[in-house]
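USER: Write out one fold?

ASSISTANT:
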Amino acid sequence: MKPFLILFAVLAAPRLLNAQTFEGKVVYQLTYTSKLKGLSNDRLANAMGDRSEYYIKGGDYKTVSNGTIFQWQLYRNHENRIYNKTLKSNALLFAEGASNTDTVYNTSLVFGAVTILGHSCDEVVLNCRSGVQQYYFSPSFGVDSELFRLHRYGNYYEYISRAHAIPLKYVVDTPQFIVEATAVQVTPMTLDASFFALPQGVLLQPMPQN
């Protein structure tokens, strides 16, 4: 094994060994920087929401937003599908978890990059065709990354396979806007599986392809 690989293994091992699987809720505060002419930062934040609640249990997660257009997003592990609910449609727009139109060119890892809610967080940076994605995480809020092995949509597995933890902060640069989300509250709790069920009788519609 090359010396730098040995060093990486030594540095990473305590973080992986101490990681615990997190179940519960994370509340994020979000800000947006619009890149679209005629769409202000405030209008974008109003539509998408400046506060969100992220719930995770095993391989399922759900994000609930206070946006006037975007309401919630749900990932169901056994289906490997992402569902989105907006006020503009009565249907749920879904995307296959295996689909991904983006490309990750390279990644980097920085230890002890920032402290959030009293937790020292490492940083994973994904340099992508769509832009730069930065994620800050603590192993105190670990997840089983193998549960998301098929979740390629949004470069999710690219991140989670390196961090093995939910992010306490992320900054994602896209062609349309930059979004920054920072955790302001983390609450461990037991969630019922029914929380991640689809609404009864809901219409399903594929999301438009980019």
User: Anything to note?
Assistant: Residues 22-187 form a domain with the outer membrane lipoprotein receptor (LolB), chain A fold (CATH 2.50.20).
